[in-house]
Amino acid sequence: MIPPKANAQFVAAMEDVLQVYTRPHDEAQPLVCLDETSKQLVAETRTPLPMQPGQPARHDYEYERNGTANLFMLFAPLEGWRHVKVTDRRTAVDFAHVLKDLSDIHFAAAAKIVLVQDNLNTHAPAALYEAFPPQEARRLVERFEWHYTPKHGSWLNMAESELAILSGQCLDRRIPDRPKLEREVAAWLERRNAHHAKADWRFTAADARIKLKSLYPSL
Known about the structure:
Helix content: 25-40%
Number of strands: 5
Structural class: alpha/beta
C-alpha cells in the first residue's frame, strides 16, 4: 500500500531496494537483509498430554506469561545463510551490537556489506554512536551500504519473509523462557543453514511500475 501524499517517497525507496536485489552475487559485498520481531514467552501451568496415534498433543488453555524476547533476523539471501540473535530488548544499542557482530564476526572478510532494512527509528547509523565511541561508530557506519524499504513497504524486506518461515516452523508454540527460545532457534538455524536455503526474488522495478500504473494511473 502506498500512503496518500507519499507516492514519490514510496516509489523511490522501493525502486532502490529492487535495484539492489538485481545485483549479481558478490562475495566481497554480500547482501544482508535485517528485520526483527518479538516472541511472547509462555509457560505451561499443567503438563500437556502427549501426541498419540490419531490424537494431536493437547495443551491446557491456562498458561503463564513470562514476558517477551526480541529476535533480530539477519538473512543473506544469495549466500543461503541466516542468523538470529535473541535479546531482551529492541533498543538502538541492541541493534548496534547486532551490526557489529554482522560486520566483525559473520562477514569480517567483506569489503562492504549491502544492508537492507526497514524504517524503524532505531535502525539508523546514529544507533552506532549511541553504543560505541565516535571513532568505532564511524568505522562501523562505513562498513555498510545502507538501504531502506519504504514506509508501509516492509514486505520488500526479504528478512521479513525469513522471519515468517521461522515463525511457522519454530515459534508457533508455547516457549517458556529465553534459554529455551535460544536453543530452539539455534536448532532451526542449524538445519536451515545446512540446506543453504536461498530466496528466489523475482519482483523487479519493471513489474512494480506496471502494477503501480494499474493502481494509480496518475503516477
